[in-house]
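Q: What structure does this chain adopt?
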Amino acid sequence: QVQLGESGGGLVQAGDSLRLSCAASGRTFRNYNMGWFRQAPGKEREFVAAITWGGRSTYYAEAVKGRFTIARDVARNTVYLQMNSLKPEDTAVYYCAAGKWATNRGEQYEYWGQGTQVTVSS
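A:
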């Protein structure tokens, strides 16, 4: 069993940066691949980034490639999403997820956090 909790969201201006954290509990956290997803009002949930259990491979949505960086600290049971050059269209609730695959398909993740709101003003 893995429990996830996101933090670090907030209200920022376009061009600013934020770092989201996802703290995990459970001894088997290190065995899971991790992903970040987001959902804007009135829109479907979309993939943002994923990282393999060992941190060697990362994957990004085209919309965030070059601006966002996913990383994990196994010792701290934490996954991070560094978001730079934020745009108003990045406004959404951001969720972290844990699963057996580092995939862009949300249905393949087993555990989800409650989400953290990110609002980017123009």
